[in-house]
Design a protein that fits this description.
single chain, Glutaredoxin, about 10% strand, 9 helices, alpha+beta, 5-stranded mixed beta sheet
């Protein structure tokens, strides 16, 4: 396995040291220009997911729950789904995945993230992080040169680190996945991912309050 890049490993190490003890918060937050989103921007309910591309719970939610969630709420225009990037160990893998997804463009961003999640077990089993991510990038239309430039882009990495620090500080995010439905956090059982039933209840409550 070839390392992603020395610069990438060095830069994301700064984010790995984010050890801030934070409390919960119910402040409602609007989507920003930096966010990646799906669904109806004018929907009465906004579901924000803070997730990491290297988080196994996030991958399981994406693979097992998200398809039904998308069909029920995103495709029908009932919610505005916002995906916000967070970094968990190994942070260099999460960072490279997010840089890659953004390089692919907004129209392919979620395709890349989905491919990373479905390839996560392979990456962790084989240790071939670069090879798997390169394959994902090529499937999204990027050349190897474009891939290399993408995952070593210090400007974009700095922007990613700034977003993560902001989420930790302002939204009080300490783990992934964390779901926020109209400003109210929805946590899964035993610290894992939220079930569709839990999100159903939170969305129904938010809809009732929004009327």
């Amino acid at each position: 396995m070839r390392p992603l890049t020395r610069r990438l490993l060095t830069a994301v190490a700064l984010t790995a040291s984010l050890g801030v003890a934070l409390a919960g918060c119910d402040k409602k937050e609007a989507a920003t220009a930096d966010d990646m989103s799906l669904g109806n921007p004018a929907a009465k309910v906004t579901v924000i997911e803070y997730a990491s591309a290297s988080c196994s719970h996030c991958a399981r939610w994406n693979n097992d729950v998200f398809p039904a969630f998308k069909s029920k709420y995103i495709d029908t225009g009932k919610v505005n789904y916002v995906y916000r990037e967070f970094l968990t160990p190994p942070v260099q893998v999460a960072a490279a995945s997010f840089l890659l997804a953004r390089c692919a463009g907004k129209d392919k961003y979620f395709q890349v993230i989905d491919s990373v999640y479905h390839s996560q077990e392979e990456m962790f089993t084989t240790g071939d992080f670069r090879g798997v991510l390169l394959r994902v990038g090529q499937s999204a239309g990027l050349s190897e040169d474009q891939f290399n430039a993408c995952v070593s882009d210090e400007k974009n990495l700095k922007a990613l680190n700034a977003r993560v620090e902001k989420y930790a500080r302002d939204a009080k995010i300490t783990g992934t996945p964390t779901f926020v439905v109209n400003g109210k956090k929805v946590n899964g059982e035993d610290g894992g991912e939220a079930s569709l039933a839990q999100l159903d209840a939170a969305i129904a409550e938010a809809e009732a309050k929004a009327k």
